[in-house]
From TrEMBL:
Protein name: Aldehyde oxidase GLOX
Domain of life: Eukaryota
Disordered, as annotated region: 25-59
Position of the signal peptide: 1-24
Origin species: Sesamum alatum
CDD domains linked: E_set_GO_C
Domain Galactose oxidase-like Early set: residue ranges: 508-615
Length: 616
C-alpha cells in the first residue's frame, strides 16, 4: 500500500476540517447509575423453574428440553445492575448495525481487508439468509436440501454482507489466521469434525469457503487453535480429544500428540475444560489453561515445562466459561539485536462458574457467576495468581484487548453456565479494565448497557477503527424467535468505547504514512517511522504505537489475540498537523507470529483507525 499517496489527501482533509471545526462541549464521562426500581426482578425463582439446560453433546448428555413454562419474548429484558458494586455506570455508545444478518454470529474473524468472516453451525435447519440462486447443500443432518447460508462476510466500511457457502458442519469449531492472512479453520461436528477449511480474503466478492481433502487426524469439537512462530497452526484438544496436532504437518512429525493434561482437567459429567486458553509465549512455548490449571507446554518435545498454581475460585473453561487475555506485551530496546531479551508476560482470566453449576443449571438452578479475575506473571520465577473482583459476576464474557492496552469485558450472563438454556440474567454493561492503573479501585469501570442479551453462542471482536463488533446469541437447539426467554439473535451491533466519544475527536490520531515497510511487509526488528496527524495545532501529548493481532472469537475466547506495545525511539512534530514517531517492529516471531496486524497510534488514550501491516 502506498501510504505516502494518501498523505496529501489527509492534509487537505485536515485543512478543510479547520474551517468546519465546531466547538464540542465536553460530556461528563460518567453518568449516574440509572435506577431500575419497580422492575420485576428477573431472577425470581418462578421464572427460572421449568427451563431445562441441556448439553451441546447429544451423545453424552441427552438434550432434554422439557419446558413447562414458556416466556414471551416481550418480557422486559432482565438487567443485572442490582449486582454492581460500583455506582459509576456510563461511557461508550452502542449502535445497531444490522437488525438481522440472517445468521447467528457464533464465530467471528476479522480479515486484513476489513471484512469479518462470521459463521454459525450448519445443522440447524434453514437460517434467515438465502444463498445466491443455485447454491444449496444436500443431505444435511437437519434437512435434505438447505439453500440458506450459515456463514457470511461482513464488510465493515459499507456495513453490508454477502452470504457464503460452508458445506460441512462448523459448529463449535476453532481457527487461526496463517501468515498470509488466510483463515485456517478446523473441526466442528459430525461430518465436519475432521475438516480443515480455508478462507482466503479477496476484494472481488468471489471468495468462499474451501474445504480441504486432507483431514485432521483426530475429531476436534470445542478445540482451540494458535498460530506458531513458523506460521503453522497448533490445534489443541476438543471434546474427548486429549491431544494436539498441527496444520500443516511436517513429514517427520507424528500425526498427533497425546496430551494427558486435557484428560486430567476434565470434570466428571461437566468437563469444564473445553476451548482451552492458549498463548504463544516469547520463549516459543505454549501457555495452556484449562478448568483451573495452567501449564507451559513445549509442544515440540510434547513436554510440560512448567506448571502454575491452580487459580482460586471458580472453574474457568467451557461450560463453566470464563474468558482470558494475555495482557499487552511491552517491547523495549532488547531483543531485536539478537540478544535473549524477552518481555514479561501476564495472563488474565475472568469470570466463569462454580463446579457443579452446569449440573445445577440442568435442574433449573442458575447459580451466581464468578466475579473474580486472576492475573499471573507467567515469566516470574515463582508466579502467583493475584485476584480481584469485577464490578459484577459474569459467565461467558468476551475479553478483548483494546488498542490502548486496556481490556474490555462484555457479553455473557450473571447466572448459570454455557449450554442450551443454561443461563439467565444477561449482563448488558461492558466493563473496561485498566491493567496499569495502580489504584485497584479505579481499574474497573462500568460502561453503558446494550439492550440485547448476548449469551451462549455470541461473539465479539475488535474492529480496525477501535469499535467492538458484537453479534450472535442462540442458547437454543434451533433458531427460535418466539416462546423462549432469550430468542435467537440475528442482529449485529457495534460498541464504541469511551475513547471514540466525539469530544475526543481533536485528540484522535490519523496515520498518514508508515515508512519502512516494503509493499506493506515489515521484517522483524525493522525500524518504522509512523507519521500521523492530530487536530489542528493540537500539541502531541503522551502517545504509543501498538500492534493488535486479529482474533478468532467463539465461545468467549479470542484465539490468537495479542497486543504489542512497540518500542519507540524518537518522536517529533513535523508541522502544525503532523507528528512522527519512530518505533521498532517486534524482534522475533515468538513475540509476534508472522501475519497481519493492526497498527494503531494511541494518543492520550485515544486510538485512531489502524493501518494493516504484515510481519514476516
Ligand atoms: C427469521 O425467519 C423466520 C421464518 O421465516 C421468521 O419467523 C423470523 O421472524 C425471522 N427472524 C428474524 C429475526 O429475522
Ligand atoms: C477425509 O475424510 C473424508 C470423510 O469425511 C474422506 O472422504 C476423505 O477421503 C478423507 N481425506 C483423505 C485425504 O483421507
Ligand atoms: C443470580 O446471581 C446473583 C448474584 O450475581 C444472585 O444474587 C442470585 O440469587 C442468582 N439468581 C438465581 C436465580 O440463582
Ligand atoms: C422454540 O421453543 C419453543 C419452546 O421451547 C418450542 O415449543 C418450539 O418448538 C421451538 N421452535 C423451534 C423452531 O425449535
Amino acid at each position: 500500500m502506498a501510504f505516502k499517496n494518501v498523505s496529501f489527501f489527509f492534509l487537505l482533509v485536515v485543512i478543510l476540517s479547520l474551517f468546519t471545526l465546531s466547538s464540542q462541549r465536553p460530556r461528563p464521562r460518567f453518568r449516574p447509575r440509572p435506577s431500575h426500581g419497580g422492575r420485576r426482578r428477573p431472577d425470581h425463582p418462578s421464572m427460572a423453574r421449568g427451563i431445562s439446560c441441556s448439553s451441546a453433546s447429544p451423545s453424552r448428555f441427552q438434550p432434554h428440553i422439557s419446558t413447562s413454562l414458556f416466556f414471551s419474548s416481550s418480557l422486559p429484558l432482565p438487567t443485572t445492575s442490582q449486582y454492581y458494586s460500583t455506582t459509576i455506570v456510563g461511557g461508550g455508545e452502542w449502535s445497531l448495525l444490522q437488525e438481522t444478518i440472517g445468521v447467528s454470529a457464533m464465530h467471528m474473524q476479522l480479515l486484513y481487508n476489513n471484512k469479518v468472516l462470521i459463521f454459525d453451525r450448519t445443522d440447524f435447519g434453514p437460517s434467515n439468509l438465502t444463498l445466491p440462486s443455485g447454491k444449496c447443500r444436500y443431505n444435511d443432518e437437519a434437512v435434505s436440501e438447505d439453500c440458506t447460508a450459515h456463514s457470511l462476510l461482513y464488510d465493515v466500511a459499507s456495513n453490508t454482507y454477502r452470504p457464503l457457502l460452508v458445506k460441512t458442519d462448523v459448529w463449535c469449531s476453532s481457527g487461526a489466521l496463517n501468515s498470509e492472512g488466510t483463515l485456517i479453520q478446523t473441526g466442528g461436528y459430525h461430518g465436519g469434525d475432521h475438516k480443515i477449511r480455508l478462507f482466503r480474503p479477496c476484494d472481488d466478492d468471489e471468495c468462499d469457503w474451501i474445504e480441504l481433502q486432507q483431514n485432521l487426524t483426530v475429531h476436534r469439537w470445542y478445540s482451540s487453535d494458535h498460530i506458531l512462530p513458523d506460521g503453522r497452526v497448533i490445534i489443541v484438544g476438543g471434546r474427548s480429544s486429549f491431544s494436539y496436532e498441527f496444520f500443516p504437518k511436517n513429514t517427520f512429525e507424528n500425526s498427533f500428540y497425546y496430551f494427558p493434561f486435557l484428560k486430567e482437567t476434565t470434570d466428571w459429567k461437566e468437563e469444564n475444560n473445553l476451548y482451552p486458553f492458549l498463548y504463544l509465549l516469547p520463549d516459543g512455548n505454549l501457555f495452556v489453561f484449562a478448568n483451573q490449571r495452567s501449564i507451559v507446554l513445549d509442544y515440540k518435545k510434547n513436554k510440560i515445562v512448567k506448571e502454575f498454581p491452580v487459580i482460586p475460585g471458580e472453574k474457568r473453561t467451557y461450560p463453566a466459561t470464563g474468558s482470558s487475555v494475555m495482557l499487552p506485551l511491552k517491547l523495549t530496546a532488547g531483543g531485536w539485536d539478537g540478544s535473549p531479551w524477552q518481555p514479561a508476560v501476564e495472563v488474565m482470566v475472568c469470570g466463569g462458574a462454580r463446579g457443579g453449576a452446569y449440573m445445577k443449571a440442568i435442574e433449573g438452578l442458575y447459580v451466581a457467576a464468578s466475579r473474580s479475575c486472576g492475573r499471573i506473571r507467567v515469566t516470574d520465577q515463582d508466579p502467583k495468581w493475584e485476584m480481584e473482583d469485577m464490578p459484577m459476576g459474569r459467565v461467558m464474557p468476551d475479553m478483548l484487548l483494546l488498542p490502548t492496552g486496556d481490556v474490555i469485558i462484555l457479553n455473557g450472563a450473571a447466572n448459570g453456565t454455557a449450554g442450551w438454556e443454561c443461563a439467565i440474567n444477561p449482563v448488558l454493561n461492558p466493563v473496561i479494565y485498566k491493567p496499569d492503573e495502580p489504584d485497584p479501585d479505579k481499574r474497573f469501570s462500568v460502561l453503558n448497557p446494550t439492550k440485547t442479551a448476548r449469551m451462549y453462542h455470541s461473539a465479539a471482536t475488535l474492529l480496525p477503527d477501535g469499535r467492538i463488533l458484537v453479534g450472535g446469541s442462540n442458547p437454543h437447539v434451533r433458531y427460535n424467535f418466539t416462546g423462549v426467554r432469550y430468542p435467537t439473535e440475528l442482529s449485529l451491533e457495534a460498541f464504541s468505547p469511551p475513547y471514540l466519544a466525539s469530544d475526543h475527536a481533536h485528540l484522535r490520531p490519523s496515520i498518514l504514512s508508515v515508512e519502512g515497510p516494503t509493499n506493506n511487509v515489515v521484517s522483524y526488528g525493522q525500524q518504522l517511522a509512523v507519521t500521523f496527524s492530530l487536530g489542528p495545532y493540537q500539541r502531541a501529548g503522551e502517545y504509543m504505537v501498538t500492534m493488535a493481532a486479529p482474533s478468532f472469537t467463539t465461545h468467549s475466547f479470542a484465539m490468537n489475540q495479542r497486543l504489542l506495545v512497540l518500542y519507540a525511539v524518537g518522536a517529533h512534530q513535523l508541522s502544525a498537523f503532523a507528528h512522527k514517531v519512530t518505533v521498532y517492529a517486534p524482534p522475533t516471531p515468538n513475540i509476534a507470529p508472522p501475519g497481519y496486524y493492526m497498527l494503531f497510534v494511541v494518543h492520550q488514550g485515544v486510538p485512531g483507525q489502524c493501518v494493516w501491516i504484515k510481519i514476516k
